Amino acid sequence: EQRGGGPIPRAEGRRAHPQRHPAREEEEEDEEDEEGGEGDEEEEEEEEGEEEELDGTLRGDVFRGPSRPLVPPPPRGRAPPPRGSPPLPSGCSLSYRTISCISAGLTQIPPLTAPEITSLELFGNAITSVPDGAFNGLPNLERLDLSKNNITSPGIGAKAFKLLKKLMRLNMDGNNLEEIPSELPSALEELKINENNLQAINEESLSDLNQLVTLELEGNNLSETSVSPLAFKSLKSLSYLRLGRNKFRIIPQGLPASIEELYLENNQIEEITEICFNHTRKINVIVLSYNKIEESRIAPLAWINQENLESIDLSHNKLYHVPSYLPKSLLHLVLLGNQIERIPGYVFGHMEPGLEYLYLSFNRLSDDGVDRVSFYGAYHSLRELFLDHNDLKSIPPGIQEMKALHFLRLNNNKIRNILPEQICNAEEDGDSTLEHLHLENNFIKTREISSYAFSCIRSYSSIVLKPQNI
Predict the structure, then answer these.
(1) Among 117, 44, 134, 121, residue whose Cα is nearest residue 81
(2) 152, 130 in Cβ contact below 8 A?
(3) From start to end residue, where is composition biased (Pro residues) (predicted)?
(4) Contact yes or no for 95/78 (Cβ under 8 A)
(5) What pLDDT does residue 183 have?
(6) Model pLDDT, residue 327
(7) How many C-alpha atoms does 91 have within 13 Å on its Cβ side?
(8) How confident is the model at residue 8 (pLDDT cuts 50, 70, 90)?
(9) pLDDT above 70 covers what percent of the chain?
(10) Engineering a disulfide at 125: which of 65, 106, 120, 399 sits with its beta carbon 3.0 to 4.6 angstroms away?
(11) What is the tens place of the pLDDT at every residue in 166-185?
(12) Distance of alpha carbon 167 from alpha carbon 161, whole angstroms
C-alpha cells in the first residue's frame, strides 16, 4: 500500500549517425564517376557529420530509481557492422554503439575489435573468466554488463579492466565473486556487485575509485568485521550506497561524508549509536527495514542533528512505539510491520517544515495509544497517513484538524462507527483536502453513518466503505 518514490532521471543518449552500408559502395562509386568530384564532397560532409555526432554523445545521469538500472536508449533499428570489424558471435547483435550478447550461450568473452563501441552487454551467459586483454579491442567502452554469469574471482585477470580508461558503468551482479576485482578503472561512476559471495572489503579494494557515485553490494556475506573502517575512505564522490541483504549487526564505520542515500535493509542490525552518522551531513535517505532494531537501542543523538535527512525507513523491526529524537528535517517516516502500540505526544512537534508522509500500517495501535497530541507538529503538513491493519476502534482524534491531508487509510481496524466532526470540522467552511479515504474491512454499519460525517469531502467516490466485517 505504500506510495512514494519520485522519478529519477534515466540515462539518455544521442544516436550516432548510421554507418554506410558496404553493399551500396559499388553503386555509389559509379554515380560519383558520373558526377565528377561532387560525390567526394558529399561523402566528406557525411563523415564530418558522423564524427560530430559521436563526439557529442551525451553521458547519462549515473543515478537510478530503487534498483537504478543504467541502460542505453532503446534501439531504433539495427545498424550494419563497422567496416573491418570481425563478425559477431551467434546470438549477438549490433545496435549503433552497443553490442548485445544477452543469453547467447557464451562460455567466454568473444574477441571483438570495434573502437567505436561504447556499450557491451554480456548478460545471462555461462562466462567463467575475464582474462587480461579481453577488452583490448574495445578501448572506448563506457558501459559493461557481465551480470548473471559464472565468473569467479580467480578467473579475473589482475589487469582485465585496467585498459578500459573510459569505463563508467560496470555491472557484475549475480556471479560468484568473493572479492572486488583489482585495478578497476578510475573513471568508474557506477559499480554493481550484487548477489555474489563477497567476503570482505579491505582498504585497497576501492582505493582508486574517487569518481564513484553509485556502489551496490547487496546480497553478499559482508559484516562489520569483514569491512575495513577505511574501505570507503577514497570514495570522495560516493552518494548512493546499497549494502542490503548482508550480515551487518551495526552500521558500518567510515561512511564517506558525501553519502546521500544509504540502504541497509535485511541485515541483523540491532542498534544505532551516536557516532553512526557523525560525518554524513549530506545524508538524505536511510533505509533500515527488516532488521532487529528496538527504540531503546536508538541513541538520542543518533540523527537528531542531521539537517538534510528527509526519509527514514524502519519497517519490520522491533519497535513498540514511534521513536523519539527524530531529525528536524524529516518528511517521510516508514514504520510498517512493527509492534507499535503508541504514538508518544509531541514526538513530531520539533519538525520543520513538518512531517508529510507517515506509514504505520500493520502495527498494534489501539485507541489508548493515540491521542490529540500524538500528531502535534504535523497537523499542518501531513499529506499521507496510513493507520490500516491496527487495533483502532474509533477514528483517531485530530484527523479533522489535518489541513494538508490527501490520503488516509483506516481500513482493516475494529472501527464501529463514524461520528460527525471526526473527519470534517463543522466549524470551518470549505472542502477538505482529503482525496482518498479507506474505511473498508471494519465493523461499521454504513446505514448508520451521519449525513454530516463526510460533508467536507468533495467527491464521495474517493471514500471506500465496503466491504465491512458485519
Answers:
(1) 117
(2) no
(3) 69-89
(4) yes
(5) 93
(6) 96
(7) 13
(8) very low
(9) 81
(10) 106
(11) 999 999 999 999 999 999 99
(12) 9
- Residues facing residue 156 across a β-bridge: 130
Amino acid at 421: E
Q: Look-up: residue for cell 549515473?
A: 62
Question: At which residue does the C-alpha cell 491496527 appear?
Answer: 390
Three-class HEC string of the chain = CCCCCCCCCCCCCCCCCCCCCHHHHHHHHHHHHHCCCHHHHHHHHHHHHHHHHHHCCCCCCCCCCCCCCCCCCCCCCCCCCCCCCCCCCCCCEEECCEEECCCCCCCCCCCCCCCCCCEEECCCCCCCCECCCCCCCCCCCCEEECCCCCCEHHHECCCCCCCCCCCCEEECCCCECCCCCCCCCCCCCEEECCCCCCCCECCCCCCCCCCCCEEECCCCCCCCCCECCCCCCCCCCCCEEECCCCCCCCCCCCCCCCCCEEECCCCCCCCECCCCCCCCCCCCEEECCCCCCCHHHECCCCCCCCCCCCEEECCCCCCCECCCCCCCCCCEEECCCCCCCECCCCCCCCCCCCCCEEECCCCCCCHHHCCCCCCCCCCCCCCEEECCCCCCCCCCCCHHHCCCCCEEECCCCCCCCCCCCCCCCCCCCCCCCCCEEECCCCCCCHHHCCCCCCCCCCCHHHEECCCCCC
User: Are 98 and 169 a contacting pair, CB within 8 Å?
Assistant: no
Q: Which residue carries 467527491 as its cell? A: 459
Global pTM reads 0.81
C-alpha cell at 277: 552518522
- Full set of structural domains in the chain with CATH: 22-55 (no CATH), 269-383 (3.80.10.10), 392-470 (no CATH)
**Number of residues in the chain:** 470
Alpha-carbon distance of 410 to 333, in angstroms, equals 17
Q: Are 235 and 259 in contact (CB under 8 A)?
A: no
Angle value at C-alpha 310, between 309 and 315, nearest 5 degrees: 100
For residue 241, give Cα distances in angstroms to 194, 195, 216, 336: 12, 15, 6, 23
